[in-house]
Design brief:
- This protein is α+β, with helices and mostly antiparallel strands.
- About 20% of the residues lie in helices and about 30% in strands.
- The radius of gyration is 25 Å and the shape is elongated.
Length: about 230
């Protein structure tokens, strides 16, 4: 649909309508390579509109999702081995979103996904120290293994920070424990369990920072609430 150029420029947030008129009069606006003149119109869906040589591009709407990742899905958008990906589970969200951090193939639970790269980078940066809480089902449990699970281990040449570990319940050699990590290192919980000589049979992330998985069904996603976005500083 054809509209006055100044109206289009103002809608993109580059300038007010009056300022946009001044930009056009100063011959700083081009449409399809041609210098625009006052009173010109354009179709933003069809025409290439440039201001000072920079094409007008509207920022995509920011999307923030929480997914309850099932086991058997890789945390990526494409997989060269043909495995199922988390992208398939959110394909109906209306946007191309990316996972924030990772959950390995056999882990499940809370996974944030967004197209807001700045937020993703902030949450994943080590300095953020975002707490992550997990429920971990174990076999081969023995009294006292919790202390071993708290001990730092070396991953990629660097010691981990101590994990918080609490026993939820145990029956013979089967147990359920809670583990809170203050960093997200590669397969950290599984490596801690290997060090303690216990075996992970199921691993589910239930909290990331102040966001909780709650009752979200396995394999389903939902948009973050206004309160959750506020907690993330969005």
């Amino acid at each position: 649909m054809e509209e006055r150029l100044q109206k289009i420029i103002a809608r993109y947030g580059l300038a007010s309508r009056r300022k946009a008129e001044e930009l056009i009069a100063a011959r700083r606006v081009r449409v399809n390579g041609n210098t625009a003149m006052p009173g010109d119109t354009a179709d933003e869906a069809e025409d290439v509109i440039e201001v000072d040589g920079v094409r007008l591009r509207r920022e995509p709407e920011r999307v923030y999702l929480m997914l309850n990742k099932p086991r058997g899905y890789v945390t990526t958008l494409q997989d060269e081995k043909g495995r199922k990906t988390v992208a398939e589970l959110v394909s109906d969200c209306g946007a191309r979103v990316y996972p924030v951090g990772r959950l390995d193939l056999n882990s499940e639970g809370l996974l944030l996904m967004t197209n807001d790269g700045a937020l993703a980078n902030r949450l994943m940066h080590p300095s953020a120290a975002v707490e992550k809480e997990y429920l971990v089902w174990l076999s081969g449990y023995y009294a006292g293994c919790e202390e071993k699970l708290r001990r730092p281990i070396e991953i990629d040449g660097r010691k981990t920070t101590p994990a918080e570990v609490r026993l939820v319940r145990a029956e013979d050699k089967i147990a359920l424990i809670r583990i809170v990590l203050h960093e997200g290192r590669n397969r950290q919980i599984r490596r801690l369990c290997e060090q303690a000589d216990v075996t992970v049979t199921r691993l589910r992330r239930i909290r990331e920072g102040k966001l909780c998985l709650g009752q979200l069904a396995v394999g389903k996603w939902r948009p973050l609430t206004a309160l959750e976005l506020e907690l993330l500083g969005v």
